[in-house]
Amino acid sequence: MENKNNHVVIMAGGVGSRFWPMSTPAKPKQFIDVLGCGRTLLQLTVDRLGDLVPKENVWVVTGETYAELVYEQLPEIPRDHVLREPCRRGTAPCICYAAWRIKKLNPKATMVVTPSDHLVTNTDEFRRVLKNGLQFAGETDAILTLGMKPTRADTGYGYIQADLTAASARAREIFRVDSFREKPNKAVAEEYISHNNFFWNAGIFIMSVSTTVNAFRIHEKETSDVFENMLPIYGTDKEQAAVNENFPKCRNISVDYAIMERADEIFVYPAQFGWSDLGTWGSLMEQSSRDIHANAVIGNEVRLYETSNCMIHTTDMKQVVIQGLDGYIVSEKDGRLLICRLSEEQRIGKMSE
Amino acid sequence: MENKNNHVVIMAGGVGSRFWPMSTPAKPKQFIDVLGCGRTLLQLTVDRLGDLVPKENVWVVTGETYAELVYEQLPEIPRDHVLREPCRRGTAPCICYAAWRIKKLNPKATMVVTPSDHLVTNTDEFRRVLKNGLQFAGETDAILTLGMKPTRADTGYGYIQADLTAASARAREIFRVDSFREKPNKAVAEEYISHNNFFWNAGIFIMSVSTTVNAFRIHEKETSDVFENMLPIYGTDKEQAAVNENFPKCRNISVDYAIMERADEIFVYPAQFGWSDLGTWGSLMEQSSRDIHANAVIGNEVRLYETSNCMIHTTDMKQVVIQGLDGYIVSEKDGRLLICRLSEEQRIGKMSE
């Protein structure tokens, strides 16, 4: 059921400091087998696409220093589909680059843009939503975002406010966006979820490459020019040198600010497919299976005594014995050890600096 | 000030299961830099002898499997002074072997027998005591034990009851032993230390080789015969094969039972030189320097937040962050991690099995 016009762009440039020591700048969380299932989050991101897109239509945008990790973990992806950013400039230049790059190959392409370090548990539903979304975006000039139906008043996500009136509905499941909202405080988050038209912004977008480059031309012209000017050398052996020279000129901005909050034809597809951004140890714990004492254990030969409500992630360790802990994160990776109360996990980045 | 008759026999065959994961059967605690000072306990045991005995008069008795570790850690000791036991038979056969072996070289030798995994903080006083003890044992047919002046009602040590009456005193500091006492319960330990004539048995003995072999001939004849029979081949290339064949015939018994509690001329030298047998994590903690929150930290790049009364031993780790622990042991070694309340440390051996 592959559609040759369907492409996927996986953004794999993140640094993941909140998951120290499992995730480090040298090997951030997308390159790690966070779930202890034998596949890294990046690999799972490709796996869950199934046959939705041909493998030769998968693209990964990542930092120069991570390219080898991508080649190694995704040998099935063409090497020249790993787009290498010489520096970090946020998601807007990343997506603009991919859109122009793909447009050169196929002006009729439609692309899913997705983070590389999220979790989806219901992959059938995920593929159904993406398939419908790709069709919708391919037939229109709309930019489609996926909105996750919220299950709690989470303050760690941005929210998308949808216009659920019938006049807005497209294809029955897709609605016009009223507004994007920053991460709220607790009270505001509770207000949001008391309505039924607020959704978590999953950072997954679907749009045709022509719609994408047009949106950049209108709303972020300088960035668009950078990548349009390189059109003749895409796919040649001059591409990387040109990107290395020109990419740093782009201003550092997220696609949300650059495009989503400015463009008109923005739609949201409310969905529910067991999504988590795995942004914190707590969210990983929530997604993991637990023992009868509510411990989530990812590791070998881990023995727990009088221990409950702990998140244990010690995949590199040969043997672990823990006695008498309640409500802690214990994680070891590559010679770095963290023991920290779950309630204090927001401090991990700072404590490990 | 070396005396060519002075020898030291270091017993290095122990397994140290209570210090898991730092200590494992493959590399027990005597072979480990427990204090994080750059020297293993075995090396410190040799270091603290200073010039009391010539290096060529140092002997190590250890298990066959640990011989390479000894060669590596004590390159200054003659290789044929590393006596290799083919199996574990307690301290009596170990000491009997060493005594016969040394007697063949020098019938006038006097030897200090010492464990390899203890700690001494006042090495000047330690050497003074040993020097006096060697002189006393060399001039008499006495067996001298060192008794540590107790600082608390410890239930983890055996006790030596001394006869402190003037009639018993030799060289002013040395007294006749009334009795050896097994590890007591708390009430008995408190009774012991309420008197001033009970001392901890440090397992350090001083006696001439002739006195030693005579004591074995009288009190443990079969063991003595095993080693006396091998006299002609000691120091030849047939020694190890003969030991491998005959050593297992010895019965498994400690020197305390075999000799100390049976012989007549047993003396004790009460002393105080900052001794600990480092038998538990708690005792290591007690001997370690502490930060202002009473944490003992042996490791690199260890950062503690809201953490107190913890024993941290993570010398293999590159970086450690601990938040919110009070009264725990945290230890990592060679891919094995322990987190355990100090109050539960007696369970470590069982929990790590």
Largest sheet of chain A: 5 strands, mixed, barrel
The helix-and-strand class of chain A reads alpha/beta
Secondary-structure element order of chain A, N to C: EHEHEHEEHEEEHEHHHHEEHEEEEEEH
Could you state the oligomeric state of the chains shown? homodimer
Describe the structure.
The structure is a homodimer of 353-residue chains. Chain A is α/β, with parallel strands linked by helices. Chain A is built from 11 helices and 17 strands. The first copy, chain A, has helices spanning 41-47, 67-73, 91-105, 123-139, 186-194, 209-219, 221-228, 239-246, 255-260, 281-287, 348-351; strands spanning 6-11, 58-63, 82-85, 110-115, 119-120, 143-148, 159-163, 175-181, 198-208, 266-271, 275-276, 296-299, 302-305, 311-314, 319-323, 328-333, 336-341. In chain A, the strands form 4 sheets. In chain A, strands 6-9-7-8-10 form a 5-stranded mixed barrel. The first copy, chain A, has a 4-stranded mixed sheet with strand order 12-14-16-17, with helices on one face. A two-stranded antiparallel ribbon of chain A has the order 5-11. In chain A, helix 3 (91-105) crosses helix 7 (221-228). Chains A and B meet through strand 15, strand 16 and strand 17 of A and strand 15, strand 16 and strand 17 of B.
